[in-house]
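Re: weekly structure request thread

Next one in the queue (141 aa):
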Amino acid sequence: MHAPFFTARLVALAAIASVVTGQTLPAGCDRAVTVQSGDTCDAISAANKVSTYQLAAVNSDIIDPGCGNLFVGEVLCLGITGQDCNVTHVMQTDDTCDSVAIAAGIPINTLLANNPNLNTICTNVYSGEVLCTASQIYVKL
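Done, posted below.
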């Protein structure tokens, strides 16, 4: 009685699984994570010490700009060898880019260079965003 409904759902799930398992990670990927139920880009970034920008940039062929298309079981690259910033800070409500840079012991220009998604006056940062706070500049624009 419900066979067509269940068959259609099974076919849809199989199609999604084939897309997810058929993906390839970027060349030079040095660490990866599998998306779990309830994951967001910020949560994945915080748990794995990778900036929100780096996660999105490395996976630009997979993740949409709003990070609204994560699928359970999908494998994401966290960093590319030689360009993998794993020194991070999760922004809190009262944080500013200046306070984060001072706490990390880095110049504000280094913070901005490693997080090119931020504007020069840092008004577009949000609570929960993960920033690269390394003293080395990883982002090559």
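The first strand starts at residue 29 and ends at 34. The radius of gyration is 18 Å.
Next request, please.
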